[in-house]
Specification:
Elements (H helix, E strand, L loop, with lengths): L35 E8 L5 E13 L11 E10 L2 E2 L6 E5 L59 H6 L3 E5 L7 E2 L2 E2 L5 H15 L7 E10 L1 H11 L7 H7 L10 E5 L8 H9 L11 H18 L15 H19 L3 H10 L4 E3 L2 E3 L2 H8 L16 H5 L12 H8 L10 H7 L2 H6 L8 E7 L7 H13 L3 E7 L10 H12 L5
Parallel strand pairs: 5-6, 5-9, 9-10, 10-13, 13-14
Antiparallel strand pairs: 1-2, 2-3, 3-4, 3-6, 7-8, 11-12
């Protein structure tokens, strides 16, 4: 099935046999005997050091007809010995790591021209590459010390390896890729590449180590978008023509679970959500255009109502009118409470003195929504994503071969040009829909992942908290296993309980090395 025509709306057909893209030449066979052996020391979340010996396959191209094999390749790590004890990981769950940030290209070795998030950061606890001086620190009067492996922008691959999992790390094209004046990594290139990598892993079941029935994707920021997409869009026919063009393997792209950190998702509605949350907050000491902000906020109310999502417990339907209360009661105030309880009495007193908007009573924190928003402020203009100057990463993601950036919403285009009748390029609506996990969840995709680990910091002003919460609400409403938590004062890329992730993975997969 070819991709849906630009702007069209179609019900996705997940029935019947797994859709497949044609492979060429029969070349997509994993070279199981072509590995090197290496050893590294990994500091686990509880502070213990583990010496891990592993087999390492590097830069394995996962499509028969790559556009750029520098990025369209993957690495595989299979632990064989941990602290001198032999480990048989031939049937261990597969931890599928997505080291991509800013919608930029990235290699499986972590090279990402975006520099600081998350592709260029070392794996958590990996003493073979990590620079201890680069570990985020904080004053005890503001935040308790982070556990080992935290603050690593969602990259938990080293911890997974130390727990005996097979780790597959995939590269992909991105919005920055250009050759001979033409861009070749714009949306949906990265998603297509990652799906092709998943198909390669499934095709090589029995050759590539690990259990293909227990694949867990992991990513943060743009990588969080991709991880959520891998879980939500399993089996979607909308990617078939793209995959066919690359000579992707004829195989499943199934995912068992998705770990998603601070995801930049639901981009077609991101500007609306951002103004709902931050419209009254100052940017660099000044309010943004309040007319535009209020227009977008009104549009968010319509969008949120259309989703028909119901909150946990007996909360009922979550709407724009009560979303602030839902977030405060279920995530934001509990995050502040956990943070303050972890401080010494002296440090807690100092924090509360510095932040008088917080009421501390009965060993619990409470505050108003307005007080919370004033505490964190905003970090993006209006529109926040489809911005007037086309300087944010997202317009670059939706560029094309000849344009580095393009507007991807009618509102953004009209705000920038002043033309009240302007509409985005014809291919844009389809690509926006194609790259949104909510598209597939709204269709109740029966092949989706059924386990979701969702994390974000309460001071992450890169997106509205409603984006990840709507992802949680939708999957919860569908009956999936969802674990959503927010970190108080955590910024973009916060990852403060990596040990709990590893524990959760053991629970849902039933896997343990003993």
């Amino acid at each position: 099935m070819a991709a849906t025509a630009a702007g069209a709306t179609a019900v996705l057909n997940y029935g019947g046999a797994q859709s497949a893209a044609a492979s060429t030449g029969g070349t997509l066979t994993f070279p199981k005997d072509s590995y090197t052996t290496a050893t590294k020391t990994i500091t686990t979340a509880d502070g213990a050091e583990k010496n891990v010996t592993y087999r390492f396959w590097e830069n394995i191209v996962y499509v028969a007809d790559p556009v750029d094999p520098t990025y369209q390749c993957l690495n595989v790590q299979q632990p064989v010995e941990i602290d001198g004890r032999a480990v048989d990981a031939s049937h261990a769950p597969i931890f599928f790591s997505i080291p991509l940030g800013g919608f930029l290209s990235g290699t499986p070795g972590g090279t990402n021209p975006g520099g600081d998030f998350p592709g260029s950061s070392p794996s958590p606890g990996d003493s073979s590459s990590a620079d201890p001086s680069a570990t985020p620190t904080a004053s005890p009067t503001t935040r308790p010390p982070l556990p080992p492996g935290a603050g690593d922008q969602g990259d938990n691959s080293a911890l997974a390896l130390a727990a005996g999992y097979v780790v597959v790390t995939s590269g992909a094209r991105g919005r920055d890729n250009v050759k001979d004046g033409k861009y070749y990594g714009k949306a949906p290139a990265a998603l297509v590449d990652l799906k092709a990598a998943l198909r390669y892993v499934h095709k090589n079941k029995g050759l590539l180590p690990g259990n293909t029935d227990k694949i867990i994707t992991n990513g943060g920021s743009a990588g969080g978008n991709f991880s959520s997409m891998m879980g939500a869009s399993v089996g979607s026919p909308l990617f078939d023509s793209y995959l066919r063009d690359l000579g992707a393997a004829e195989a499943s792209d199934a995912v068992f679970a998705s770990a998603v950190f601070c995801p930049i998702i639901d981009l077609g509605n991101a500007d609306k959500a951002y103004e709902w949350m931050y419209g009254s907050a100052e940017l660099n000491g000044e309010l943004v255009d309040q007319t535009a902000s209020k227009q977008l906020t009104a549009q968010f109310a319509e969008y949120q109502a259309s989703l028909g999502l119901h909150g946990v417990g007996r909360f009922g339907r979550v709407t724009a009118a009560n979303y602030d209360r839902y977030l405060l009661e279920n995530y934001v105030q509990p995050a502040a409470t956990s943070h303050l309880r972890a401080l010494s009495e002296a440090d807690r007193t100092a924090y509360l003195t510095a932040n008088p908007f917080i009421r501390w009573s009965g060993d619990k924190a409470s505050f108003s929504w307005d007080g919370y928003i004033a505490h964190i402020a905003r970090s993006r203009p209006v529109p926040a994503f489809d911005d007037k100057a086309l300087s944010e990463p997202e317009p670059g993601y939706f560029g094309d071969e000849t344009h580095v950036s393009r507007h991807f919403t009618d509102f953004g285009l009209r705000y920038a040009t002043g033309d009240k009748t302007a509409t985005v390029d014809r291919d844009i609506p389809h690509k926006v829909r194609l790259t949104n996990p909510m598209t597939y969840l709204e269709e109740r995709n029966p092949r989706r992942a059924r386990h979701w680990w969702l994390r974000i910091g309460t001071s992450d002003t890169t997106h509205s908290l409603t984006a990840i919460t709507n992802l949680a609400l939708k999957t919860q409403n569908l009956g999936d296993d969802v674990n959503l938590k927010m970190y108080w004062d955590g910024g973009h890329g916060a990852n403060e309980d990596p040990g709990d992730l590893i524990k959760w993975l053991g629970e849902i997969t039933g896997y343990s090395i003993g």
